[in-house]
Amino acid sequence: MKRALVAMLLLCGCPAEKKAEPVAAPVVREVVDAGAVAAAPPAPEAPAPLEVKLTGSLEVKKLKAARLVLVVSKSRCAADSAELEVLEQTDVSAGPLLSEMSFPPDTVAHLCVLALDARGKLIGFAAHPGNPVTLSGQVELKVLTLKPVKARPAPKGL
Asked: What pLDDT was estimated at residue 81?
């Protein structure tokens, strides 16, 4: 009788039909092995700048310039240039010319000297006859003779 009572209690404690709760379907994630991923090669380092020695002589003659500027330009420089892409510039004096500047190897540039009056107007001009030049080591400008030009504003970029 005890067994029947226990069995009855067990059956009474359980609902007659238990509704199954919906079970979410398992999500299958696939992992794909892409193998070794190559890192991007490092960017090449910019070559070290080279010291370039510019030598020669500058003749001014009767020109009354307040300032003489040696210009190293990426663009062609002429007496009538309205704008210059100046890479470097330095003030110089009449007579022997010596200037050292640094440029990336094999830079191609135009070399010229501009004479400016006290108001900054262009009054004289000389260009290296071998323009354009590849700047490396030493560049001999030989003798540059400034020629007077009609006073006008100095080129932009100077």
From this structure: 92
Residues contacting residue 85 through CB under 8 Å, at least 6 positions apart: 73, 74, 75, 157
As a whole number, mean pLDDT of residues 84-90 equals 95
HEC string for the chain: CHHHHHHHHHHHHCCCCCCCCCCCCCCCCCCCCCCCCCCCCCCCCCCCCEEEEEEEEEECCCCCCCEEEEEEECCCCCCCCCECCEEEEEEECCEEEEEEEEECCCEEEEEEEEEECCCCEEEEEEECCCCCEEECCEEEEEEEECEEEEEEECCECC
Are 34 and 75 a contacting pair, CB within 8 Å?
Answer: no
Residue 156 burial class via C-beta count within 10 angstroms: exposed 0-12, middle 13-18, buried 19 and up: exposed
The domain spans of the chain are 58-153
Identify whether the C-beta of residue 105 lies closer than 8 Å to the C-beta of residue 133: no
The model carries a pTM of: 0.69
- Sign of the alpha-carbon dihedral angle for 26, 27, 31, 32: positive
C-alpha to C-alpha distance for 139 and 152, rounded to whole angstroms: 29
Tell whether the model's pLDDT for residue 59 goes beyond 90. yes
